[in-house]
Amino acid sequence: MGAKIDHPTFKELQPINPDKVVWKYFTLDKFMDLLFRSSLYFTRADLLEDKLEGASSKYLSDGRLANQTLESKSDVQDQKIAYVNCWHGNEYEDIAMWKIYGDRGVAVQSTYSRLKESITVTEKKSPYIGEVQYIDHTHDCIPNQYGAWSIIFDKFMHKSRCYAFEKEVRLVTTVFGSAQYGTNGLHISINLNKLILKVIISPFLMDWQYKNIVKFVGNFNCKLACCRSDLHGFLNI
């Protein structure tokens, strides 16, 4: 069990340090979903903000001009069958990530290896994991050394460079030929204790809100460390 890396695309996208710190910033409703279901939610790629998710580069890996637009028919089809779960690789908390994704919620701190090993579904259904690479889709090529077998993963592990600040670690799975085809998202089971190093509560919350979240987390059987953001006290709120 655990997320997979035994695919050519992902073997080349593994971090130098497998114990690098990763974060996921949650709104409270999404954090509650994580705890109640003991699962990570994977969003269908065409529902993400970035329209270039899964887009082909203008150039092929050998430098030739591709005979398709950035939104080709195959790209649109691939967006319908690819599902992703996104994490932020960083040693420290990030105020921008709080504001964009977690504002008045929480952040889960983990490590790359713990995230990878926390997946509890069968090997066949397990997602792949790797570090996202950032490119300029109008000038850079997306590497594709292994042909059709890997192109869908190559595309979804390369994002527009304007998102490079996210330093994304990504879990990816596909549902081609599955009964889940067409659903907006899907849940993949995890071991919460394996995944979570600690739960960090938003620096933007009041004391009473902080206490309520600590109490809420404490009601779960899993023993989760819970603390306030290091940024609390340094912000005018």
Largest beta-sheet details: 9 strands, mixed
Q: How many helices does DSSP assign?
A: 8
Distance between the termini: 43 Å
Class by alpha and beta content: alpha+beta
- Domain module tally: 1
Order of helices and strands: HEHEHEHEHEEHEEEHEHE
Number of strands: 11
The global form is: globular
Q: How confident overall, as mean pLDDT?
A: 86
Beta-strand percentage?
15-25%
Summarize the amount of helix as a percent range. 25-40%
Poorly predicted parts: 59-70
Q: Evaluate the radius of gyration.
A: 18 Å
Summarize, please.
By secondary structure, the chain is of the alpha+beta class. 27% of the residues lie in helices and 23% in strands. The protein has 8 helices and 11 strands.
Descriptive report:
There is one protein chain. The chain is an alpha+beta fold and 237 residues long. The protein has one domain (8-228). The protein has helices at residues 8-11, 28-37, 73-81, 95-102, 112-118, 148-156, 192-195, 207-218; strands at 21-26, 39-44, 82-89, 106-111, 128-131, 133-135, 158-160, 168-174, 185-189, 198-201, 226-228. The strands form two sheets. Strands 1, 2, 3, 4, 5, 8, 9, 10 and 11 form a nine-stranded mixed β-sheet that branches. α8 links the parallel β10 (198-201) and β11. The longest helix is centred in the C-terminal third of the chain and has 12 residues, at 207-218. Mean pLDDT is 86; it is low at 59-70.
